[in-house]
Amino acid sequence: MLKQILIWLGASAVTLLVIFVSVVVYQYTAMEPELPHEDECQIRQLETSEDGALEVHSYWCERGEKQSWQGHEIWLHEPQPDKWERIMTTEHDGCIKLELSDQRLEINHDGKRGDMFLVEPVFLFNDAQGVSQSLSVQVSTRGDAVCSDSGE
Protein backbone atom coordinates (compact mmCIF):
# COMPACT_ATOMS: atom_id res chain seq x y z
CA MET A 1 0.00 0.00 0.00
CA LEU A 2 2.79 2.45 0.95
CA LYS A 3 4.67 1.46 -2.20
CA GLN A 4 1.63 2.31 -4.36
CA ILE A 5 1.26 5.71 -2.69
CA LEU A 6 4.95 6.49 -3.27
CA ILE A 7 4.69 5.46 -6.93
CA TRP A 8 1.58 7.63 -7.35
CA LEU A 9 3.29 10.62 -5.69
CA GLY A 10 6.40 10.12 -7.83
CA ALA A 11 4.33 9.95 -11.01
CA SER A 12 2.44 13.09 -9.98
CA ALA A 13 5.69 14.96 -9.31
CA VAL A 14 7.13 13.97 -12.69
CA THR A 15 3.90 15.02 -14.45
CA LEU A 16 3.91 18.41 -12.73
CA LEU A 17 7.58 18.92 -13.62
CA VAL A 18 6.91 18.12 -17.29
CA ILE A 19 3.98 20.56 -17.36
CA PHE A 20 6.04 23.31 -15.71
CA VAL A 21 8.95 22.88 -18.13
CA SER A 22 6.54 22.85 -21.09
CA VAL A 23 4.93 26.11 -19.98
CA VAL A 24 8.32 27.80 -19.55
CA VAL A 25 9.52 26.61 -22.97
CA TYR A 26 6.25 27.73 -24.61
CA GLN A 27 6.43 31.15 -22.98
CA TYR A 28 9.93 31.83 -24.28
CA THR A 29 9.38 30.43 -27.78
CA ALA A 30 5.79 31.28 -28.71
CA MET A 31 4.36 33.85 -26.32
CA GLU A 32 7.42 36.07 -26.20
CA PRO A 33 9.25 35.52 -29.48
CA GLU A 34 12.36 37.46 -30.31
CA LEU A 35 11.63 40.76 -32.06
CA PRO A 36 12.94 41.19 -35.62
CA HIS A 37 16.48 42.61 -35.70
CA GLU A 38 18.08 44.46 -38.61
CA ASP A 39 20.78 41.82 -39.05
CA GLU A 40 18.15 39.05 -39.42
CA CYS A 41 15.07 40.80 -40.86
CA GLN A 42 14.25 43.37 -43.53
CA ILE A 43 11.02 45.35 -43.37
CA ARG A 44 8.88 44.84 -46.48
CA GLN A 45 5.69 46.74 -45.66
CA LEU A 46 4.40 49.07 -42.94
CA GLU A 47 0.72 49.93 -42.45
CA THR A 48 -0.42 52.49 -39.86
CA SER A 49 -3.89 53.12 -38.45
CA GLU A 50 -5.48 56.52 -39.12
CA ASP A 51 -4.95 57.68 -35.52
CA GLY A 52 -1.35 56.39 -35.39
CA ALA A 53 -2.07 54.12 -32.42
CA LEU A 54 -1.32 50.93 -34.33
CA GLU A 55 1.28 49.76 -36.84
CA VAL A 56 1.51 46.48 -38.74
CA HIS A 57 4.97 45.49 -39.94
CA SER A 58 5.79 42.83 -42.52
CA TYR A 59 9.36 41.47 -42.44
CA TRP A 60 11.37 39.00 -44.47
CA CYS A 61 13.59 37.19 -41.95
CA GLU A 62 16.46 34.76 -42.06
CA ARG A 63 16.95 33.44 -38.54
CA GLY A 64 18.72 30.72 -36.67
CA GLU A 65 22.05 29.06 -36.96
CA LYS A 66 23.37 29.63 -40.48
CA GLN A 67 20.06 31.34 -41.25
CA SER A 68 18.28 27.98 -41.26
CA TRP A 69 14.77 29.51 -41.01
CA GLN A 70 13.62 31.88 -43.75
CA GLY A 71 10.20 33.41 -44.13
CA HIS A 72 7.78 36.23 -43.49
CA GLU A 73 6.88 37.57 -40.05
CA ILE A 74 3.96 39.94 -39.49
CA TRP A 75 4.09 42.03 -36.30
CA LEU A 76 1.62 44.34 -34.56
CA HIS A 77 3.17 47.39 -32.85
CA GLU A 78 1.53 49.86 -30.48
CA PRO A 79 3.88 52.88 -30.30
CA GLN A 80 2.32 53.87 -26.98
CA PRO A 81 3.28 51.89 -24.78
CA ASP A 82 5.81 50.34 -27.25
CA LYS A 83 4.15 46.92 -27.25
CA TRP A 84 4.92 44.29 -29.92
CA GLU A 85 2.92 41.15 -30.76
CA ARG A 86 3.62 38.64 -33.48
CA ILE A 87 0.59 38.10 -35.72
CA MET A 88 1.78 35.52 -38.22
CA THR A 89 4.79 33.61 -39.51
CA THR A 90 5.32 31.60 -42.64
CA GLU A 91 8.19 29.84 -44.35
CA HIS A 92 6.44 30.71 -47.62
CA ASP A 93 8.91 32.71 -49.74
CA GLY A 94 6.32 34.30 -52.05
CA CYS A 95 4.61 37.66 -51.81
CA ILE A 96 2.46 39.20 -49.09
CA LYS A 97 0.27 42.30 -49.10
CA LEU A 98 -1.12 43.96 -45.95
CA GLU A 99 -4.31 46.02 -45.94
CA LEU A 100 -5.23 47.79 -42.69
CA SER A 101 -8.56 49.59 -42.49
CA ASP A 102 -10.70 50.45 -39.48
CA GLN A 103 -10.30 47.49 -37.14
CA ARG A 104 -9.51 44.89 -39.78
CA LEU A 105 -6.22 43.60 -41.14
CA GLU A 106 -6.17 41.51 -44.28
CA ILE A 107 -3.02 39.55 -45.03
CA ASN A 108 -3.07 38.52 -48.67
CA HIS A 109 -0.49 36.02 -49.90
CA ASP A 110 0.16 33.97 -53.00
CA GLY A 111 0.84 30.70 -51.21
CA LYS A 112 -1.28 28.00 -49.60
CA ARG A 113 -3.31 28.57 -46.44
CA GLY A 114 -1.50 25.66 -44.82
CA ASP A 115 1.80 27.56 -45.13
CA MET A 116 0.64 30.30 -42.74
CA PHE A 117 0.77 30.20 -38.94
CA LEU A 118 -1.68 32.77 -37.57
CA VAL A 119 -1.13 33.31 -33.84
CA GLU A 120 -4.63 34.71 -33.10
CA PRO A 121 -7.51 35.89 -35.29
CA VAL A 122 -8.19 38.91 -33.01
CA PHE A 123 -5.75 41.24 -31.21
CA LEU A 124 -6.53 43.85 -28.56
CA PHE A 125 -4.96 47.31 -28.57
CA ASN A 126 -5.61 50.82 -27.24
CA ASP A 127 -6.55 53.56 -29.70
CA ALA A 128 -5.16 57.11 -29.55
CA GLN A 129 -7.66 58.01 -26.80
CA GLY A 130 -6.65 54.98 -24.72
CA VAL A 131 -9.88 53.08 -25.40
CA SER A 132 -9.53 49.32 -25.79
CA GLN A 133 -10.21 48.16 -29.35
CA SER A 134 -9.91 44.91 -31.27
CA LEU A 135 -8.23 44.17 -34.59
CA SER A 136 -9.54 41.22 -36.58
CA VAL A 137 -7.09 39.44 -38.86
CA GLN A 138 -8.06 37.66 -42.04
CA VAL A 139 -5.71 35.63 -44.21
CA SER A 140 -6.60 35.58 -47.89
CA THR A 141 -5.29 34.13 -51.14
CA ARG A 142 -7.07 36.71 -53.29
CA GLY A 143 -4.25 36.86 -55.85
CA ASP A 144 -3.03 40.46 -55.63
CA ALA A 145 -0.15 39.93 -53.23
CA VAL A 146 2.89 42.00 -54.15
CA CYS A 147 6.59 41.63 -53.50
CA SER A 148 8.37 44.65 -52.17
CA ASP A 149 12.03 44.81 -51.19
CA SER A 150 11.98 48.53 -50.50
CA GLY A 151 10.13 48.61 -47.16
CA GLU A 152 7.45 50.93 -48.53
How would you summarize this macromolecular structure in one to three sentences?
The protein is 20% helix and 42% strand.
Tell me about this structure.
The strands form two sheets. Strands 1-2-3-4-7 form a five-stranded antiparallel beta sheet, with no helix packed on it. Strands 5-6-9-8 form a four-stranded mixed beta sheet, with no helix packed on it. The chain is extended and about 70 Å long. The chain has one helix at 2-31; strands at residues 41-48, 55-63, 69-78, 83-90, 96-101, 104-109, 116-118, 122-126, 132-140. The protein has 152 residues and is α+β, with helices and mostly antiparallel strands. The mean pLDDT is 83. A hairpin with a 6-residue loop joins β1 and β2 (55-63). It is 20% helix and 42% strand.
Q: What integer is the average pLDDT? A: 83
Q: How would a textbook summarize the main sheet?
A: 5 strands, antiparallel
Radius of gyration over alpha carbons? 20 Å
Helix fraction, binned, reads: 10-25%
Question: For the largest beta sheet, what order do the strands appear in spatially?
Answer: 1-2-3-4-7
Structural class by secondary-structure content: alpha+beta
Proportion of residues in β-strands: 35-45%
Task: Show unreliable segments.
Answer: none
- Could you give the order of the helices and strands? HEEEEEEEEE
3D shape: extended
